[in-house]
Amino acid sequence: SGYDLLESKKCHYPVPQRWKYKNTECKNTFVFSGMGKNVTLYYQPVIFDYNSHRINGIGLYRNNTISLNHDNKDERRGRYYVPDYVIKANINGSERYIILDAKFSSLATVKREYVADLSFKYLFSVSTVAENRSVDGLCVIYGQCFNDTDTQTVYDKQISTQGITPFADLIPFIEGVNDLNHNSVIQQLLSKIGI
For tag attachment on the chain, is the N or C end more exposed, with fewer CB atoms within 10 Å? Predict the structure, then answer.
């Protein structure tokens, strides 16, 4: 898509041993550049409850201790979140973020069991640490789908053609689908933040 890989690295997030999160053993940060913009893809980044921008360049923090998830004590105490992916776009001095979480479930299951929790976590409980940054949207990637399944928004009651912000999309990704289809979906997603 016109971007070159500048850097790929493994960031070790400073988390206590007692936390459920375990640092990944592979590279988890990928920086791309092109067309006057930088784009960073984070794999399983930790969003702490304080300004941790210096750790791996993520200008986000968890802003409350409320949790809809009652299984994870650390989430209930409001210490951190770990989405599957975060995309950060640096455009003209601002940072725009998309948070992505993947579920190996059907569209109906994602809508019924995950959308409310993920929306609360990543759209209401995550804020930026500076004014020139924004969380533009959430994408839930689901894998139990068919070749002809389209991306859709969770907003099923729009009153105009103007998009709702922040956006919240449900994106099908499945093995065996032509990569051109996946690339088209990714390009549509990135265009929402000016990439």
Answer: N
